[in-house]
Amino acid sequence: MTGWESNPSIVALGGGHGLYATLTAVRRLTRKICAVVTVADDGGSSGRLRAELGVLPPGDLRMALAALAADADGVWTQTVQHRFGGTGALAGHSVGNLIVAGLTEVLGDPVAALDEVAKMLRVTGRVLPMSPIALDIEADVSGLEADPRVSRCIRGQVAIATTPGKVRRVRLIPSDPPASPEATSAIEHADVVVLGPGSWFTSVIPHVLVPELREALVYTRARKVLVLNLAAEPGETAGFSAERHLHVLSQHAPEFVVDDVLVDSGSVPEGREREHVARAAEQLRARVTFSDVAEAGTARHHPGKLAAALDQVIRQPRPQMAGLRVEGRHMGQDVRSGLGGKERVPWR
Prior knowledge:
This protein is an alpha/beta fold. It contains 14 helices and 10 strands. The strands form 2 sheets. It has a 7-stranded parallel sheet with strand order 3-2-1-7-8-9-10, sandwiched between helices. Strand 1 (9-14), helix 1 and strand 2 form a beta-alpha-beta unit. Helix 1 packs across helix 13 (303-315), helix 3 (59-67) runs parallel beside helix 6 and helix 8 (181-188) packs parallel to helix 10. The protein is globular, with a radius of gyration of 19 Å. The protein starts with 8 loop residues before the first strand and ends in a 10-residue tail after the last helix.
């Protein structure tokens, strides 16, 4: 590849270890990276700082910064990731979480705080919160009552991620939160957008529940790639097939479509199960690619394998201009106006 195509602008959305895996992969493909991170964590160090200081939960943001740091094994990256031991007030806190929280108070702006930490770590690209305010997640969960048909409403990312019931649907509180303007701009101007892997209901789906973020994802000319998890997670997606992951995403945002769905070949056997995944992907108007992306003996994505698979996917001719279609219509003047009159050149 030549010219700008050799260094595409890639936006990766998610949170936690799933986003960390994506970022460590895409940094092998380009230096133009923007991470858009969920801000609904209410557990551990992040939850404590959020409750005590009123700041965005910094944990997932810190992990994204570490994933893009110039020296992954350098002393500053290790220090940012270091978690205090002991039994005192600092026990369990990550140094990086405290730095991000402190800079946010000093500068009065979480994005400015993240940019400062990025300078310190010599980060490749940029890390942004998906919303400038901390969010809560609420879920309808069945299987917690004697009658399996009865659903109970539970609230909080940790409660949802660890529930023994079956999550049916999630929503954000507030229901109409603002998106970070920098995040929507990055999506609108990206060449490639990658969503997933990660905790499906608490790290992936929340991105399509923020109205302005969902609108940017629907109308962007970027090539959109959805990376599926290697396996169902205990708690929120226990018992979910790959097909089910696609169905619930489509149910939460019917207008959201993607170009490609990337699935680990070892997690879905050949035959009928792959046919089911392909049919589910049709709801998202996507083409499915099966590739070995797992780290041997683990339930984690291998950065090198994931990078190679993503590179192969985005080099292929685009299956369709999925991001420009809403209810079967191509992007018109009304959409172009919403993007400031700019028309992006697609990846291929």
